[in-house]
Hints:
The complex is a heterodimer of chains A (230) and B (565).
Chain A: E1 17-18, H1 22-33, H2 36-53, H3 58-63, H4 73-85, E2 91-97, H5 108-115, E3 120-124, H6 126-130, H7 136-146, H8 149-161, E4 166-171, E5 182-187, E6 190-194, H9 222-225
Parallel strand pairs in A: 2-3, 2-4
Antiparallel strand pairs in A: 4-5, 5-6
Chain B: H1 4-25, H2 34-60, H3 65-96, H4 99-103, H5 112-134, H6 140-155, H7 161-164, E1 170-172, H8 182-194, H9 199-203, H10 205-221, H11 226-237, H12 240-243, H13 271-281, H14 283-289, H15 309-334, H16 348-362, H17 366-385, H18 389-417, H19 427-434, H20 453-471, H21 474-477, H22 480-491, H23 495-499, H24 504-523, H25 528-531, H26 538-542, H27 545-556, E2 558-559
Helix pairs in contact in B: 1-2, 1-3, 1-8, 1-16, 2-8, 2-10, 2-16, 2-18, 3-8, 5-10, 5-11, 6-8, 10-11, 10-15, 10-27, 11-27, 13-14, 15-16, 15-17, 15-18, 16-17, 16-18, 17-18, 17-24, 20-24, 22-27, 24-27
Amino acid sequence: MSKRDGPGSRGGGTRASAPPPRALRLLFFACVALSILPALFGLHYARGYWNVRAGKSIAEQRASLLGVNWFRPAFTSFLDRLDRTLPPQSHVLIEPVRAQTTAGRSRWHLFLNHYAYPHRFYTRQSAWASGTLVDYPRWIEHHQRSLGLEQRLADEAAIRERGIDWILRIPIGIQFRASQVELFKRGASGWERVDLAPPRAGAEGADDWQEPTGGLLFDSGQAESEPEGP
Amino acid sequence: MFTLATLLVLAGTFGLGLVLVEAARARAPTPGGAIERTGLALLVGLGSTAVLATALIAGLGPPAPFATRAALLAAALAGAGAWIRGARARRARAKSRSDAAAEGCECPPWTTLDRVLALALVGFTGFAVFYAASMPMHLFDPVYHFAYKGKLLAHEGFGGPSWTDLEGPIGRIITHPDYPPGLPALHAVVAAAGRQFDEDATRALMGAFAAAAIAVLFAALRPRGRRPALIGALALAGLPLLYYSQLPRNPVDFDKDELTFVSSLDVQPGEFGRAALALAIGAETAQRRFPHLGPFQLPDGWTLDGAGDFPLAALLLGALVCLTRAAAGARRAAGHDPEWRGEPAGGAGDGVLAGVLLGAAALMKNEGLALGAMALIVFAVRCVIAPGSWVRARALQQSGWALVLFVLAVAPWMVLRRDIPSIDENYPAAVLRMLGIGDAPTAGPFDHSPGSLGAAATRFPVVLMGFVQSSLNPLRWNLVWVLFGAVLAWRLARPRALLHHPLAVPLAVVVGAWALYALVLLVTPWDLAVLYTTAIPDRLLLQVAPVAIWCAVGLAWRRISPEQP
Lengths: 230, 565
């Protein structure tokens, strides 16, 4: 502690206060000294930002976050195709199919609900679909096992009442398989299968999931700039 | 990202905050320094914008772009006018007496250590702003709990089927529909200012909450000396949980079932070193150079991504600082009280500001309502037991102002909320069920909420372990909670002095918050072992962490009143 703090201060304080015992003072300084780790994180983050994301559009920046599955090209390309297929502000019923998992990252109905807005998405047992991970398995189970033809017919009145003219069947898995998504439109003779609009030029390869090939969420870009070893 | 809309909202909210703070402090015995007024104005501005936007959207529907821009510009101009008027008034007062002396701030020369601490504080504050503004919003809660509702408010307002059509065989999708709408309202304001919805533009406001909280904490501790203020503010600015919470690997095996969780405790001594190495040289570089020590993965953060926990924490800190000022004003006016002499003193205006801030905190997350009510009750009790009938009357009057503003701020949401179904985490109902008063717990393998006190008791060790595991983890908190516990234990040796300490109310709120969180975790329908993997209870404890730092430093560095030798 500096002598310039003066008598009575015993370091660390001004004459406005009496400092705590030495042990507590050491604990305070240890607490502050541990901030070195967030500081290193800050340096690493800033370096990653300048190397990878600075100056890029928000879409490109989102795509650089490889750990976020709703920013992967398979999903963002699908959102674009869906938006070009549906009339504005369509009312769409989502049905989960072929569930492989009940992991939180497989809740594509939530991701669609946000990123495909202002299309309005509906589902059966929406309280379970909207609930926590505690409720999510119930929602999947309802569609996989409990939902018989009788229930589907009973739901038809509620579907018509809400002006729902589209059904989207999404396979449930952590990876988004755009090629396995099925879209149906209400036609004169019932629900008819509809093809999605084709991918935009340059996005053809984004239809299905591709595993990240390098880097995690906060990749600094350093690994990409260095040559691979033999 | 900082967009023109972000900057316009920041200018407008800051201007609104300046108008309110300058008006509230115009007659205060000590108006506060520039850092305090700036931080407080940002907090009050962001908070009152959330409150006003919620009320206006509830009454008038989605915000109109032109009206929103005009209102923000007018608020920015009004704020500039208020700042100029306030500065003139303060200059006039300074001629008759020294403000610094009135605040009890003495200014010894800067030491090298002071300069290092100040540099680190500025660096961390700048990084918090940069981090919030430069990363796309990407975590589940900020996007799907908060930004989506912002989209609804920007396009549909409240009350439509998007909020209420959840209980039939077919319905809309919305997570946590009864989460309060403070942050979504800010999303809607930013969307109206920019004429398009942009969740990343709103994310940048999280940096303003961080900078404001750091400034208010520094100012609240400044009367105890420059160095305690720097240490306290740096403890908040350098808090790991502000920047990351999903650590590479948990030191406890969370794959185990909830009831075998405690026995699964398996501390990994190398964890700290692995995380430090990943932070120092980067995860991929560490993996390449030390593959036998891995896996290395850099942590990711929740708290500045746009969830409600940190805004709640910042607003609660601001509110308690204002409440303590109001109480100090009453004590100071009454005369001798050694513990309170020299404390920055406010008046009824600080009671009003506290009410606005508590109301805004209640609109950020559900816990804010309970914490706000708790703060007001504790403050009122403190007023009642204060010595001297005149002090009691004056302090109760100030808490009355806070209560009125708090109720006015949350009332529109309370009315709207009656029509929104509570579909998942209904904690009041779960508490009643635990006490055997309400319905039996939902049948099924997924609902873990206890149906009796006995069942809750079997959960208690798991809850306790969650708190211990979180609060002792230096990779999340540095030593903040260790310090809080150590200082509390030290000061508990003189309980009577602690009871009459100016920081007794904030301290009681922190302790009460821990009890509240323990109760919430006891009755949650979640599997606790799963819940702990989502940065709980860390995110809950964050809500009172700035107040805890204020209490720890404020109790450790005791004020020396002029009468003391």
